[in-house]
Amino acid sequence: MRRWETAVMILFAFVIGLTFILSCGNGGESNKSNEFSGNWTWVAGSDSANDIGYYGTLEVPEASNVPQAREQSLGWIGADNNLWLFGGFYWNAVSLFNDVWRFDGMYWTWMSGNNTPNNPGVYGPATSALPGARYNSVSWTDAEGHLWMLGGHGYDRSGTYGYLNDLWQFDGTYWTWISGSDTVDNPGVYRSTASSLPGGRSNSVSWAGTDGGLWLFGGYGYDGFATLGYLNDLWRFNGIYWTWMSGGDTVNNPGQYGTKGMPAGSNVPGARVDSISWVDSNGHLWLFGGYGYDGFATLGYLNDLWRFNGIYWTWMSGGDTVNNPGQYGTKGMPAGSNVPGARARSVSWVGNDGGLWLFGGFGYEGSSTSGFLNDLWRFDGVRWTWISGEDTVNKPGYYGTKGLPAGSNMPGARYYSTSWTTTDGDLWLFGGYGYPASGGVDNLNDLWRYKP
Asked: Cα 410–415–421 angle (5° rounding)?
């Protein structure tokens, strides 16, 4: 081969190689559509704990605005497809919030509520109504993007602290008190059609049914006999009346598991708190884990998976005993033997493909050690897949550069975070109680994005 031919071939190979490198990097056009794919991105907030936040001016977005570090808040997607956040708890100063925030993809905006903690509720008139400061409520979003919120642990009309059963609606501007009491610690009313009402409670789970109904399960609060404890009652709200659908009207009931995969009228999950829930494409309600009673009346962390078809409960996966370790398998590979360890206080999303996504919480990893978790899982309706994060506990976060996705980025282990799924299928995670970049454990206000 002539010397000039050799030089041309070397130059050609160099150009091809350079083109490939650029197309795979951040500057390459062919990779732009996947720049977040499979990676976590630290979007906003602090990479340290106990950030005091900044409110700015009501309804004015600013780059410096950010909610104070907190846990046990509510999150929902509004009609504007923005992230909305309500209330929560900052444990160092025993601060309960009733502030409303919106994140538009760039800035946080303080939209409603008080910028001071521990405020009582204002139950009327309509233009000034505002729920009292609280945490560990449950929520639903209706077809118009309105928030519906029930109960939690917080302050009633008179500033008395306890378990609430008030039902509120928020349309993006005004709050409306719909149902329930303006005082705390009320027992449930189970058997009166027109006046049935769940008792005061917190740490429940909820679903927005495909039939338009609002569904509520369990939590910690008051049963039909004014006894405080763990609940396993299932309720439905049709917009006017509450209906008791399943479970007990007393506290601390064990689970009735029956046969795995077989629906039965006698099946029912045990009383529990801090589970996760979602609705599948068939309108079935799903329930996973939490802290409560197993099939042998033992109290502990659960990893049982249940489905409710509107009539019967079915035990689908996981154990009927407490404190089971996780079976992780191979990262990224679904398997019938995979299952997250027993845990509570996790967060969940439903992806655009209908799959459930589960992150973190407090519970058991693969070697039966308990602690704070940062593992990310996906359930496709049949099998679990360990997607990312660690199979060990108490891992600090790795934040990387704000706004830049990277395979090494990972939220620290935590519980009681807030989660959203946007219409583009992105998963969002905010705050909670757990590990920042520097280790240690405390309240967080970091905002993360994950694109499946």
From this structure: 65
Which parts of the chain sit beneath pLDDT 50? 1-37
Q: What is the pTM of this model?
A: 0.91
Query: Please, what sign has the CA dihedral across residues 416, 278, 382, 317?
Result: positive
Q: Give residue for tokens 């802290």.
A: 291
Residues 6+ apart with CB under 8 A from 56: 62, 64, 65, 109, 110
d(CA 19, CA 12): 11
Cis check for the bond before 334: say yes or no (omega within 30 of 0).
no
- Give the residue carrying structure tokens 């996981």: 318
Could you tell me if 290 and 317 are in contact, meaning their C-beta atoms sit under 8 angstroms apart? no
Q: Is 377 helix (H, G, I), strand (E, B) or coil?
A: strand
Tokens of 20: 């490939």
pLDDT tens digits, one per residue of 129-142: 999 999 999 999 99
In whole angstroms, give the CA distance from residue 206 to residue 125. Answer: 28
Residue 384 CA to residue 378 CA, distance in Å, equals 6
Amino acid at 159: G
How many degrees, rounded to 5, is the angle at CA 121 between CA 217 and CA 230? 25
pLDDT digits (tens, 9 = 90+) for 5-27: 334 333 333 333 333 333 333 33
Looking at the structure, give the CATH architecture of the domain made up of residues 42-450: 6 Propeller (2.120)
Integer Cα distance of 141 and 423 in angstroms: 14
- Tokens representing 17? 């190689």
Max Cα–Cα distance, the chain, nearest Å: 97
What's phi and psi for 254, nearest 5 deg?
-75, 165
Residue 384 burial by CB count (10 A; 0-12/13-18/19+): exposed, middle or buried? buried
Q: Which two tokens stand for residue 319?
A: 């154990």
Sign of CA pseudo-dihedral 195, 137, 421, 82: positive
Domain parsing of the chain, residue ranges? 1-35, 42-450
Count the neighbouring beta carbons within 10 Å of the beta carbon of residue 330. 10
Where would I find the beta strands (DSSP E) of 322-424?
A: 343-344, 347-350, 356-364, 370-379, 384-388, 414-415, 418-421
Nearest to 71 by CA among 94, 39, 105: 94
Q: Which residues of 267-302 are buried (b: 16+ CB within 10 A; e: fewer)?
A: bbbbbbbbbbbbbeeeebbbbbbbbbbbbeeebbbb
Distance between CA atoms of residues 265 and 311, nearest Å: 8
Render pLDDT for 161-218 as a digit per residue (tens, 0 to 9).
Answer: 999 999 999 999 999 999 999 999 999 999 877 899 999 999 999 999 988 899 999 9
